[in-house]
Amino acid sequence: AKQHPLAMTPADPGWNDLVGIAPGPRMNATFVTLARNSDVWDIARSIRQVEDRFNRRYNYDWVFLNDKPFDSTFKKVTTSLVSGNTFYGEIPTEHWSFPSWIDQDKAKKVREDMAERKIIYGDSISYRHMCRFESGFFFRHPLMMNYEYYWRVEPSIELFCDIHYDPFRVMVEQKKKYSFVLSLYEYKETITTLWDSTKKFMQNHPEHLAPDNSLKFLSDDGGDTYNLCHFWSNFEVGSLEWLRSQAYIDFFESLDQDGGFFYERWGDAPVHSIAAGLLLNKDEIHFFNDIAYWHVPFTHCPTGEQKRIDLRCHCNPKDNFDWKGYSCTNRFFDVNGMDKPEGYENQQD
Ligand code: GDP
Ligand code: MN
């Protein structure tokens, strides 16, 4: 077989190891996708990229979840693309509906008001169910109970670089519980009272707060107000056992009681991020710089030319969002005392 030209350079990223099945152990982990039948071609694109860049050598399973039954086209297409085993689950009604304590009229008025104010997804009921499901339920779906770690994949994402190692193994071996590639500021209008609810939770459950937490990532005034920073949850590699822990469940249930999934439009991204920031120690949150990623409209493209060459990346470094003004990743680096990559100053606008 013809050797890849890079395999003969000193910068050899181990090309010959990237052919065939990767050696080494597998973790108890799965990809997970929430999708509608109509998302089939958009998720097909995502799967193809995840497989080409990583999973064809690792063959991890993939769980698909839907509030309606998956149709045969969806199952056929996705099964043909995934190198591991595929599983298809329906979401129980209790996990995709209004809890009994929600005032339907109040929720409806909020949607009408948000529609008028042109707040993105502000008028949508299904989007709210989706955000509540991703915040509180996906990790306890019966199909997910078989696993300890998950990697969330959405329709229409791109992966721009080869992934040379097993991110699940990084999570396990480095005792990480949550990870991200992009972070940014949330739309204030969608989470007006989320921090009030969070503060109430902190008062009621001081026992759940991690001693070395990342409050500084979330707040600029010692916890008085939320600075809107969050990890973008359309990409996540994380611990299911953490999400199933008493601490996380108490947090979710406290928020759910307050009703903001329906009286506002709380997203699962700020919910997961606030939980990670408060319930985990700093060293349990991981930034996957090597995983180059796009979900409309933001790109994470690793800083540093040699890295991009080694990983056969096809992203334009100018598109990298990390160091731009609307990203919170700079703050994450500061809070964690991490060295910023060479050349980051040139990517700030
Ligand atoms: P955005 O990324 O915030 O713009 O939201 P998306 O439209 O990408 O939705 C987030 C995730 O939830 C994606 O994986 C969608 O496929 C999925 N999703 C959104 N709405 C629904 C829904 O009503 N039913 C199902 N089954 N999945 C949904
Ligand atoms: Mn999306």
Which descriptors apply to this entry?
13 helices; 349 residues; binds guanosine-5'-diphosphate; disordered N terminus; binds manganese (II) ion; three-stranded antiparallel sheet; alpha/beta
Radius of gyration: 20 Å
What ions, cofactors and ligands are bound? guanosine-5'-diphosphate, manganese (II) ion
Distance between the termini: 44 Å
Looking at how many chains there are and whether they match, the oligomeric state comes to single chain
Characterize the main sheet. Answer: 5 strands, mixed
Overall average residue pLDDT = 95
Widest sheet, order of strands: 3-2-1-4-9
**Low-pLDDT ranges:** 1-12
Q: Helical stretch count? A: 13
- Going by helix content, strand content and strand pairing, the class is alpha/beta
Q: In percent terms, what proportion of residues is strand?
A: 5-15%
Helix content: 25-40%
Give an overview of the whole structure.
By secondary structure, this protein is of the alpha/beta class. It is built from 13 helices and twelve strands. The strands form four sheets. The chain has a five-stranded mixed β-sheet. A three-stranded antiparallel β-sheet has the order 5-11-12. It is globular. Bound molecules: guanosine-5'-diphosphate (GDP) and manganese (II) ion (MN). Manganese (II) ion is lined by residues 154, 234, 295.
